[in-house]
Structure formats: C-alpha cells, structure tokens
Amino acid sequence: MKNDIESAYITEGIHEECGVFGIYDFDGNDVASSIYYGLFALQHRGQESCGIAVSDTKGSGGKVKSIKGMGLVNEVFTPDSFEKLSGNIGVGHVRYSTAGGSTPENTQPLVLNYVKGTLALAHNGNLVNALELKDELAYTGAIFQTTIDSEVIAYLIARERLKAVSLEEAIRKTMEKLRGAYSLVIMSAKKLIGARDPFGFKPLCIGKKDNCYVLASESCALDGVDAEFIRDVEPGEVVMIDEEGIHSDTSLVQSKKAKCIFEYIYFARPDSHVDNVSVYNSRIMAGRLLAQIHPVEADLVVGVPDSGNAAAMGYSFESGIQYATAFVKNSYVGRTFIKPKQAMRESSVRIKLNVLTDVVKGKRVIMIDDSIVRGTTSERIVRMLKNAGATEVHVRISSPPFLYPCYFGTDVPSGDQLIAYNNTVEQIREIIGADSLGYLSVDRLSELIKGDEGYCDACFSGNYPIEPPKQDIRGEFER
Amino acid sequence: MKNDIESAYITEGIHEECGVFGIYDFDGNDVASSIYYGLFALQHRGQESCGIAVSDTKGSGGKVKSIKGMGLVNEVFTPDSFEKLSGNIGVGHVRYSTAGGSTPENTQPLVLNYVKGTLALAHNGNLVNALELKDELAYTGAIFQTTIDSEVIAYLIARERLKAVSLEEAIRKTMEKLRGAYSLVIMSAKKLIGARDPFGFKPLCIGKKDNCYVLASESCALDGVDAEFIRDVEPGEVVMIDEEGIHSDTSLVQSKKAKCIFEYIYFARPDSHVDNVSVYNSRIMAGRLLAQIHPVEADLVVGVPDSGNAAAMGYSFESGIQYATAFVKNSYVGRTFIKPKQAMRESSVRIKLNVLTDVVKGKRVIMIDDSIVRGTTSERIVRMLKNAGATEVHVRISSPPFLYPCYFGTDVPSGDQLIAYNNTVEQIREIIGADSLGYLSVDRLSELIKGDEGYCDACFSGNYPIEPPKQDIRGEFER
Amino acid sequence: MKNDIESAYITEGIHEECGVFGIYDFDGNDVASSIYYGLFALQHRGQESCGIAVSDTKGSGGKVKSIKGMGLVNEVFTPDSFEKLSGNIGVGHVRYSTAGGSTPENTQPLVLNYVKGTLALAHNGNLVNALELKDELAYTGAIFQTTIDSEVIAYLIARERLKAVSLEEAIRKTMEKLRGAYSLVIMSAKKLIGARDPFGFKPLCIGKKDNCYVLASESCALDGVDAEFIRDVEPGEVVMIDEEGIHSDTSLVQSKKAKCIFEYIYFARPDSHVDNVSVYNSRIMAGRLLAQIHPVEADLVVGVPDSGNAAAMGYSFESGIQYATAFVKNSYVGRTFIKPKQAMRESSVRIKLNVLTDVVKGKRVIMIDDSIVRGTTSERIVRMLKNAGATEVHVRISSPPFLYPCYFGTDVPSGDQLIAYNNTVEQIREIIGADSLGYLSVDRLSELIKGDEGYCDACFSGNYPIEPPKQDIRGEFER
Amino acid sequence: MKNDIESAYITEGIHEECGVFGIYDFDGNDVASSIYYGLFALQHRGQESCGIAVSDTKGSGGKVKSIKGMGLVNEVFTPDSFEKLSGNIGVGHVRYSTAGGSTPENTQPLVLNYVKGTLALAHNGNLVNALELKDELAYTGAIFQTTIDSEVIAYLIARERLKAVSLEEAIRKTMEKLRGAYSLVIMSAKKLIGARDPFGFKPLCIGKKDNCYVLASESCALDGVDAEFIRDVEPGEVVMIDEEGIHSDTSLVQSKKAKCIFEYIYFARPDSHVDNVSVYNSRIMAGRLLAQIHPVEADLVVGVPDSGNAAAMGYSFESGIQYATAFVKNSYVGRTFIKPKQAMRESSVRIKLNVLTDVVKGKRVIMIDDSIVRGTTSERIVRMLKNAGATEVHVRISSPPFLYPCYFGTDVPSGDQLIAYNNTVEQIREIIGADSLGYLSVDRLSELIKGDEGYCDACFSGNYPIEPPKQDIRGEFER
C-alpha cells in the first residue's frame, strides 16, 4: 500500500537537507510564532519534519519547551502549540533526510540536558568524520538515541564544557574536531549562538528586528519575520547573542572557503542573498552564461517551474530571444499524492505540470532547467512540449552534469544513479529526446558569484575541499 | 481560537464556487482514480470540500459508493478510498462556499435514491430562483437536508421523472424551470449526463480517452487524465453518455449567451480552453489592452503571482517594456496557516509573497493584478515594492472595477465591501499608494474572447442577463 | 487490511440499534453538554455513530446547529463542539447498525428543512412497512439521501404538516401510517416532542431537572444529567414540551402492548427502570427462574461479565449456591482492536476476559450468560473455565433460545446463523462443551416484568405482534 | 481549553507507573503482535504512553525498529504498525507519569546505540539515587535527552560494557550502583534480559509458549498471549535468554525483600499471581481482615468497582452479610472526557458510576473501597448511596491510611494532599459522610501475602526499606 503513495517533493531532484532559525528577544516577548514564520520561509530546505524549542532567559532556569514532528510546518504546529511554547529565546529546524533516517527520533532541534544545564541545537550540513567521532565517544561511554550527526556535536560540546570555561569556548573546541559542513544554531539557558564551519559550506546569516536578534539559514527567513538583514555569519565564525548583545569569535576563520555552489543554482530561494550574492542574480547569470556557451536559434526561451525561470530569463536577456511562460504548475499537489496506476503513469507529470499549448505550438523552444539527475522527468517534459506542438526543443541546464556524490548535506546520489555518470551529453540528449542539450561548464561557475573562487563544486568536479570518507556512509550511519 | 486560523485561499480575492467532473469507462475499468486526478486539476475551482461517487453499470443495480469530506482532494482521499470506490462510471466535485454553508451536509456529489433508482449529481453555478423553487417543492411535501440549490435540482428531476419517459427528458423539463447558472454532471445507474444552462455561465467540456468519455469543468482536467479534448458542451445542451455512445439534446439552446467573463480573467486555469478561447491568450490580450488604454513610462512590468503574470506579459508585448519576475511565492503556505498577532501582521503577506529586491530596486515598476476587491492586499504589495526600492509603482488591473454582486456562483461581495463601490479610481489609487492606477474598461471586454459578445459582465456593469433575485439570498438561503 | 481489525463491540452478541435523548431548558441555558452526558449514559445502545443537534427557542428562527460523526461519544465531540452547539433545546442520538448502513449519511439526528421550518429527529426502532411507505413517497416525488427509515418518518411528518394545523397533529397522523417500532424525539424551532409507537416496543421516559424537561431512552440517562425521573412515555402517546409546559396526546394509546422483553434481559442498563420495572430486578428474577427450572448441584454460580452477573446473583439467591466472580474483564479493549493472527486466535477472548483460576479451580461451576447466538464465544468461555480447573461447567442462559429474526430494531440474525435454529439444546450443550445447559423458558418471561403480558418475545416464540414484512428487508433497505 | 478535559483515569486514585513486557521467539516468528496483546493485558499499569521495539536475532545486526506514542495501546498501534515491526525479539512498555514528564521524549522502550551495538530498555520503578547518578554521569560528559531515570540506567550499562566482558556482567555491575525500584526488560541484538532490583519492589515473571520465552510485569500478560507461567524473577536476579536458552545470575539476591504491598491491594490485576500469591486471594483476605477488625451490623456488603469488589466478597464471606452489586460502571468513559461545567459537577461521578437504587434502598450498606486519597470521590459515592435510599453507609478500606509519599514508582502524593495526613479517622468519617469508617491496620498486612514479611508498606508506615532522597525529587527530576 505504501508504495502507492508518491511523495512529490521527495522523489524528484536533489534536496537540501535542512534549514535552521534562531531568535532572541531582549524585550522578553514570546518568540515561537516568529520561529514559525521563519521556518515557513525555510520550508523549501526540508519538508520531512520540523521543530521548535524555546526557553525563557528569565526565570525558567533554562527549562526548554519543544514541539517536533514529522511533516510540514503547517501540519506540525497548531494554535495550541503557541500556548505551550512560551519563551523569549528559541531555535527552529526544518529537515529532509534519506528514507532510512526519517523517524521521530531524528527530528530537530535536539534538546538535551548536560552538566551545565540545557541546550537546544539545530544543524544544517553533514560531517565527514561523524563515524570516527561517534566511535570515539562510544568508547568513552556515550549512548546514542538518534542517527543524526548533530547528536555527536552535542556530545562534543558537553565534553568540552567539562574542561572549558565558557560555552563559546566549548563550541570552538568542538569545531576544531569536526570535519565537514555545519551551520549551527544553538540555544542555552541565556544565550543564542550561531556557528558556521570554516569552509562555509552552508549559509547562515544574522538579522535584527526591533529588540530581537535573528539567525537564519537564508535571508528570506529574515524577510519572513520582517527583520532587517545585518550580515552573513563568516565561515569559521562563532556568533554569540546574550544579554550583553552580540559578539563574535573569528579565531577559526581561514582563507580557504567552500561555499556550496548549488545553493545558488537551486537550493536557496531566489529572494535570498547568500554571502553577499543575490541568488536571483546568480541564476540570471547562469542563464546568460548558457546563452554564451550554448547559443541556438529559437523562437522562445522557457523555464521549467519554478527553479528554471530565472535562468530562462537570463538566457533571454543575453540572447534576445523571447522569454515565455510555457507551463502551469498545480500548486495543490502536496507533499504526498496518490500515484497513478501503470496506465495513468504519463499523467503523473501532467497533474503537477501542464503545457500552455498556445504558447509553444509551432515554436522552436529553448527549455531551461536547473539540473538533470536521472533524466526521467526531463524526458517527460520534453515530450510534453513536443506533443503540444513545439517543433524543436533545445534543453539548457543551468549547472554542470552531476558526476560525484555530495558528502556535505545534500542527497546527490552515487554515480550509478546519475544519468551523466553513465552517458555522454549526446547520449543524454537522445535519451531525453531533445534537439540539442547544453550544460553550464564547470570552469565558469565562479561567474555565478561575482568571480569569488571560494566555493565547492565537488558534485560536478570531484574536487572535494575536504577528503571524503573512505566509504559512503550516508544512510549507513545508522549501523 | 478559531479566529487565529486564517485560511489563506479563502479570505482573499474572489472565488469560483465549484468544479465538476464525470467519466464513463465502456471497458468496465474502475474510474475513481481518474476522477481523483481530474479533481486535482480542478482544485483551483474549490478548496473547501470535495467528493467522488461511483457506480458500476454492470451488476451493481445502480448502487452508489461515495466518499466526501471537508478539505482538499489530497486530504480527503487516501489509497484506501480507491478500494472502496470500485465502479466504471462516476462523478466528482470540488467546492468552495461562503462560510455559512460550509458543512459536511453540503458536500457534493449529492447522492440520492428516488423512484427510478439512484442519482449522483455534481453542480457548478448558482440558481436565482432557488428559493421560489424550494418553496414550491416544500409546499408539495419536500424536505431538505442541505442548503445547496443542487438539492432543488435533484428534486425537480425526480418529480419530472414521475411523468416523463426518460431521464434526459426529465432533465430537460427541469432545466425549463431553472433560472440561473448551472453546469451539471449527473450519474444514473447506466448513464452519465452533462448539462449546461442556456446562458452558458459556467464552462463544461467533453473529452475522450481510450474507451472512456469524460466531462469536466475545464479542459485542463482532461489533460490531467490524458484525455483528448472533443468539444465544449453547448449552452443549453444536454449530453447523454450511455452504452450506445454519446448523443445530445439541443432543444434548449438559445441564441443569447452569457458566459462568465471572469472565468477568462481569473477563475479558469491558463492552460484551459473555455468555449474555444485559450484562457492564457485572453489574459495576454487583457495585458495588451491595458497597455493601450493605460500606457505609462516605466522600466519593468511585473505580475502579481500567479494570476497576474500572463497579463503582465501581454502588457510587455504591447508596450515593449521589459517583463520581469518581481515576487517569490511560498508554495508551502497551505489552506490554513496560523495568523500572526497584531505586531507581525505585516509579515503575513511576506510569508506568502516576497519581493526580489534586486529586480525592482531603483526601477519604475508597472504591477499587474487581476482585480482589486477590498484593496488591502494591493496596498500591502505596493508598499512591499516601494520598500524594496521601486521608485514608482503603476498598478494596472486586468479587469474593470467590481461594482455589483454576482448571483451566478461566485462570491463577489455586495457593494459596501467593494472598494470601487465607495471610491473613485483616484481615491483607490491613493488608498493603495500607487503612482498611477488603471483598470481594463468594460467596453473592451469582448476583445478578451475574440469579439464574442455572448458573455456576462454583470459584476462590472450591472447588466444582469437574468433578472437577479429581489433580495440578495446568498448566505440567506439557509433560512 | 480492514479484515485484520475486529470491532470488539460489534461482532459479538445481539445489539440494540439506537438510543435517543432530548432536552428543553426554559431558562435558556445551553443544553449541548447535558445531551453529551445523556448520550454517554446511553452509549451501550449504539457505538457506531452519534450526533447532537441544538437550536435556540429565542431568536434563532429555528436555525439548527449539529455535529454528527462515526464513533463513540467521546471520539466525536471535543470541547470545541460545545462552542458551536449553543442553544437551549436539542436532541441527541447514538446508533448501531448493520455493516451496510454504517455511513456518515445515516448518522442521526436527521436535520431537515421543510415547509414549516426545521426539524431534528432522533429515532430508535425499526418500521416494518418502511419500504411500502418509501415507495409511496417516491411515487409522489420524494428523494432519499439516507437509507434509514427515520427519513421516511420525516417525510410523512412534512407531508402531514401541509394539511394539518399543528406539528403534534402531523406527528399523530404520521404515526397512524407507521407500522413497527419507534421511539422518537423530535425538535422543532420551539418545541420538543417525544413519541412512542402504540406497541411500545422501545422505551422512552420523561425527566425533569430544575427548569428543564428531558426525554431519554432509559432512566439511566436521566441520572446521568441529575434529572429526576417523572414517568415513562406511554405506548402510543405523543408528549409535547413547549413554552407552555408539557402536555400529551394519548389518542393512539391502545390496550395491546409489545414491549421488547430483551431490553430487560440484555439491552437496557441494569440501573434503568423501563416501564416501571427495574431492569436489575428483572435480571435477578431471570436468575431465580433459571434456578427453579434448571437446578443443578454445584459449588459456585458465576456470571459472564457484565450482563450475566445479575442473573447469576439471582440464581445464587434462589439456589443458595455461592455466588462468585470468576472473570476479569479488560476494560481497555476499545471498540476496535487488532485481531490476532490464526495462531493467536485463542488469546483473542483471553485479552478481553480472563479467568480467576483461584476461584474456579476444583469447583463445579454454574455459568450464567444472557444469550447464545452462534455459540462460539460460549464454547471458548466454557473451555477457559475448564482449563482453569473447573471440574464441571453448567451453563444457564437467562433467555430462551433465539429462533426468529427481529424486525423491530435489533440485529437478531436470520435462522441459519442461530445455533438454536439448527440444533437441539442437547446438541448445543455438546458444541459448547458444557456439562449441562438450560435456557429460560418462553412461558415464564412475563415473570421478569411482574406478570405484565404486554411484551414482545417474537425472537424466541415467532409470535410477531405486527405481521413481519414479506421478505427480510433488513440490510436490503438500501436497494 | 485544556482545563475542561478531565482525564478520567489519571486524576483519581493512586497510579502504578509502568508495565514491561519482553519476548524471544526461537523459531524466528515475528513477536510484535504478541507484545501488543501483552501490553493490552498490562494497560492498567500505565495509560499515558506505550511503545514496542523489536529486532531480529538473525541478520539484522541488531537494527531496532520501534513505534512509540502518547495514548493507549489501541490508539498508538494500527495494523500498519505490525508491517514495520518485524523481528523475533522485542520489548514493550506502558507508562503513566506525573504531568511534567508526560512527553514524547519520555516514552519507552528507550532505544539506543552504544559501543557494543544496540539496546532497547523498558523499566518499571523509580530510583532514589537517580540524581546523584545523573550528576556523576554528567560530570563525565553524558548528555540527557529524556527526564526518565531509565536513561541513567542505560548509560551505566554502556559504561560498564566498556570494561566488562558481557552484557550480563555490565547489568549486574550497574545494579550494584542503582538504589531503588526497578524491574527491567532489556533487549540487545541477540539477547533478552530481565532484571529485578534486590528488594523486588516491582513484580516481574517468566513465561513460556511454544518455542518462546516471555517476560512480563504480571502473569495476566502471560495469559494474554497464552503463555504458561514458569516462575517469578527473583528479587536481585538477572535472567538472560539467548540462543542457548535461559540462564540466571543470582549473585545479587539478598535476604531482605520489599515487595510493594499495594500491588496486591490495588495495582495488579486480580487474575495475576505475584511472587506466588494470588492477587485475588489477597484481596479476599483483605476483606476478611476488615470484617474481623471492623465488624458492623448491616444488610449488604458492596464494593466500589472494580477494585473494591473482591474485598467486599471477602468481607461477606467472613461476616456472613449478603454481598451485592450496588453500582453500574459506564465502560465507555474513556481516558478523557469533557468535564461538566460547575452546575453539572455532581453528575461527573454519576456518568462513570451509577447506583442500583433497588439494591440499596432501605438497606444498611457496608461499602468497601481500596483506598482513600483526597476523600472527594468517597464523599460523593457515600452521598450517592444515601440519596438512593441507603439508611446507613459503613465504609471499609482494604488498606491502611496513606501517610507517606512513595519514592519507588507510584504517585502517592506528599502529605498535605493526603486526607489521612491532616485528619483523624473520625474526622475523615465525618468529611465523607459515612456512618462508620474502618481501615485495614498496618500490622496485619503480611496476612495478605500468606505471612510473608518481605514487603514494603512505607506509604502507610513510613518504614522505607531504602533511605529516601533528601528532598522529594519526583517531578523535580527534570530540573
């Protein structure tokens, strides 16, 4: 029976694995509803589970109240939730995970008691040395109740706290042991702390609203709570917000960065600015580059909704070819819908996406998408365009071909499931039925972010900024 | 507590009140899943409740199985539903209603037993003489268990059936008594019947797939089940589908038509064709007309998602001004989300819609929307654009001002709640904070549908094709 | 999957099909919570669905608010329900039905609009001429949206109201047409009405609390709302409660009664008084009679919980043999629990009922139960006693053998499913593995109710007080 | 809103805090459904939450699948649950807790990974040195994700495992550190282990069915799965079940025992045998003792359902006074029902319990209950009897007065909430309105269990077998 349910968001494309949010209200107002709206704005970063944990900096003695659950933000929280979640400091989390780890135990924020009181921790990213660290901890008596590496981070902080004077110090010491990607938002009884790994794989930024400080994965979440963008947390930086205000420890900041380039291409919301670059602009640029690298004579440029639209517009700007809307997306298809039987398979895509026949009929169409993973969806969309009367369909992809797995927090699968791993571009073109096919080239990716070279493109190039684990531990972590 | 829940789809804009779907599979295959996909494609026509009723033309003796419920299609139906709903003939319905009538009793399809067996009835539209007919029926002993006028139609058919030979005849006789808007899909033990009022207020079309006939409110639902569009049901026509195939009774067809023009402007999905006109094209045309009537010097034309986009593109085509995407819509905001407290009110709009600052900053922007009802939302969006740095915001509305209530199945409110009823265009401009404001003019509406004059624009002009009821019975119907 | 779920209450024994409740508060207080508590006390009369409908005698113009649903009273109603259900007059209903008719449409109270306003109707009992009446109505244009005969009653009342002056008159005229069992509680805009069929098959009584009148199926529901018992509604009587107080129409009262004897034996709660007879006392009497008719030498008398306990006590009183508790009932086994696989079948009974080994070990046990339907449960319980060490098990049944179907509102099945229909008492004894078996004899049933002869024992004797329908329409009603 | 919901099971009387169950099937069959039925039989030991964890001794490498949730067994588990829970070894838990700790995090079994693999742990009882142990662990880097002391036990086992050769050894070493009450069922990848604290506060027994071994809090759960009772686990014993069969470590067995006497009086199910004593028989004995200590002239002895019935029967045996059933209990009042408003308060008790007026009217009644905590319920029941016509009501309590808190796993409150702490017996008699009142005396408690002196009666006598914690940490544990 389960197999008849297709989770529309989950089975297609590549997924970001988390979004984090934190807030501290110095006026003592409840913050749970702000976290709720912040998580709404970050929902695209994870749709499997979510949670909010809050505390009161005055009087509660660090007692943490939390509600977590499987599902979307608007499924897990009800008006009653906010009655329970009183407190002026809090963190929130949205999560996507591979099927194996999708359990109630693994929802975040992780809430825990340790020698110095309570902590709530929200984590975006993936460690590459989690197993080693976990083994080490286990050999000194740790027990694990989840299969997320955030629990490892929590343990390390707790252990460091035994030695160190301050929480900040403990976090810094912990960061020295962690290898991989992590943007963290941590709440203690009286402090809100943000931390970002020295490579800066995953984004994290700071905002301010009235007498509140806010931390969020993306600036769109600041907009969602009407907070003003202050700045990004620097890779390697630890930001502490407490009653004395905001201060920062940059001792782990290093020169080499490895910001995930796919955040710009696909993950982040176009209205976000990540590390001083407008996500929207970098997508426009991706389209422009495609027009330069893979020009073609055509009547229209169209984007595959929603992520392909900006690049399509960029292609149009650069090439002078007319931009058009060719698809209608059904916004009512939720996280799960019942998958049609064999005979209806074809319409599965059409339920979510339908072609505007009047737009494409008799036209030579350039279709822009952000990526091709397995090729199945692309093939169907090309066919839909041709069935609707497009005379030619030229596919342009606003990223290079996926060739290598990602170990830093996204679910790019291993090679044998990647169409580009097993096929040449020409073969892929044939498989998806396009008249021509062009990818963005690896060597021009830096142009998406104004020439900044501090990014990670390992999923395209295989150049891992940190040595990947010997074996692919993703999914195996729960051994 | 209830008041804290805002139903995002329901409280804003004008709503279509229903969508209908029917299918007959001559090969005897189960049709429930096709109805499910058809209703998905029609979900924009009603998000409050939905239902499916099926029967088996062979052997079941007309026994109807049905599942109905409050909520979206993907909330009401589960994989288990389809085990229960076996049968090769069926009808489906999606519904929106004014708050008062939003109850389990009023969900459709209406399923009933009468002297000749069973009927299931799905109705889109509103009668203007429902109260008179209801009174008449009551005075001959009818009892009513719902407050929908579809029950009146069912009664009349049952009464006519006592006299008439055939179901088709009974439906035709019933139609002679009905005044108002109705597109009906009716299922009896062995027949599927479609009927459309002589004015053709609401759309209804016919499709075919393999050995199935399909009836649907819009052609996008035919696409949703991979059926081929055959033709629209003619206003006044009754279409019968039974084991002998499809035949038609056009004796009530008249020359005067009154097709709802707002279907083209807003209700219908852009990928639908309604009465031989592409909805998308008529929106492009609306934009072109706006550019002709209300030209203005500017840097960008942007649409308010999703419905304003096509008209914005049309404006761009006609004016030569650059089309752009200025907004990001949060597709995870579902039917209900928890409304922020006073202090956060502003962000309520930003959760659903955020501005791409990089696009509009320093630009003179033409913003296209389909309509203004109360003005609140427009005012907020204009403000968002200005806050994002737009130097001028020129609002263009792809319909004339709403001035009169609609009695035919949409929820255009009565005058005092309509901003245009109490204010001049200049006053509205000031209220919403725009630098200029222009509406589409009533006298050019026919151009949206290729010059066809058979449309209803009563909500704009007050020219009701059928005399409206003495008093506004909408909402009062449940007296 | 469905088949793995066993509905513990539903599959065993014989079921009452409904309980009704009504209340009118002259002080204008809300009555929904009283109805809720009243239905709680009547829950044993129906566990499939329930509902409450209320109105306000002042100012609402008869607008009825109702909440109905599948499930137990504590599943269907929540604290929110009572916010919606404001009103000082109301009716409630609990229902059990055969599987076919167990649908949301068939929940009660039936709420309807008709020529004179609104009615809400709650019905306990079954008509024998429902089909004839339904056909008659259909031939004059009625449509049916449920498969319950209560809808037929509602129609007839509506039709009579067209002719008659008053609602009471209409109800009386309707009663003249109805043949069968019915205890009705009906609410109009300003009146609460109780009516009982002339044979008085099903109970109905009147209570008073402060400035409220209450109607209920059983007096235990009066206790449940702290109301004082006034009297039973007389068979054939119509009781009207309106702003002028309580008055009564006894014109249909006849001498011949046919009160369901099985109410005393099993259906009614022991703390109820039905038609001036204590249900508890009549069960004690049943036990005494069994001791007289079927004496046996033994060490203990035990009852099968809960219904067999009173008769067991009566047997003990009469015989002088020690009464004992031999079983522990698991009160957490709810309406549904998951049925064990084949291998565990045996424990299915033990989950619900376990034997107190220490009580029965080495003892000769007389086991009293209220009835045997198919024999399966009896066989298991006898075996459990023997496995626990009982040396002899003598089964005594406090009713005669079921031989004939009931057409008046309980689900005594047709003959071929009744163990007594196909087997002699000696054969049954062997099947269930008892050392002896004795039933109460038909000719002594009147002693259960102090010698009153006005009762129906058709399920035992075949003496139907009203001619049964030609064919068994139960379950077929939904043709 | 929450305050309107009264949880019927939770707010009255004294509660046992847990029940545990474990099973190992050597034939490799799935055990989840057996655990389900076992937990059903133990539901009276905890109604707030429950859980099942299973593993497969062959091939799964100790991967544990678990489902846990708030609610009753039949609310948390569905047929789908059993598809997920495949495995031939498993543990289950039912739990009641004080309000503060009633959260999803605290549900059991606790499932964890540690250096040697996985463990699932189910715990009944309460440690008195949990805080000290927790502090100790915290100071060596432990983090805590729950507020249950079972997590402390898990940690200690994990730490010991680092040193010790075997799991059994680690458990024994852990037990040397634990002070307080614990009956544990623990599952590792290949073993099922049962352990009981040296005082034997809480029960634990062993059963066998076919090729399965079973561990359960009470023998009634063995009956629930048709398993044969083998023996009780000895206080201080560790029982190991693995592929080589069952073996036992009794090195911690000591001579001094402290079995909870209130298990016999109230907690355990009467069909259970605990430490070789029939719970039913010890209740009969309690009644006999009451008749000896507090004789009184009367017409009837009645029990307050359900727990008072056996003692009432014992009183009857000893005194020769007639035993009778005086109350009807409403078995449909579930875990929560909506509490009446002020005006209806009285009926709150009558909804759950009604008097059989015919039984008690004009009679001198001896009413037996198991305990009096606050006195409110007793007062209402006495009043109900008098209102029903009882001329005298003599209350006999089958336990001594509660005077001291329990620190070993039941929720006997602190003194100021105990009626007996602040009032003499005579004062209590007056408060509850009884004509006489008698308690069982502390010095005769051993007679309930055949003269065995190894029991704990600290809640009555203040003689704590283990020194209680300095401060009352119950509820504070979550500091």
Automatic annotation (TrEMBL), chains A, B, C, D:
Q: SUPFAM superfamilies from the entry?
A: N-terminal nucleophile aminohydrolases (Ntn hydrolases), PRTase-like
Q: Where is the active site?
A: C18
> Which keywords annotate this record?
4Fe-4S, Glutamine amidotransferase, Glycosyltransferase, Iron, Iron-sulfur, Magnesium, Metal-binding, Purine biosynthesis, Transferase
The protein's matches in InterPro entries, at most eight in alphabetical order, are given as: GATase_2_dom, Ntn_hydrolases_N, PRTase-like, PRTase_dom, PurF, PurF_N
Instruction: Select a single GO molecular function from the record's annotations and give it.
Output: amidophosphoribosyltransferase activity
Q: What is its EC number?
A: 2.4.2.14
DNA-binding among the record's keywords? no
Query: What is the protein name stated in its UniProt record?
Result: Amidophosphoribosyltransferase
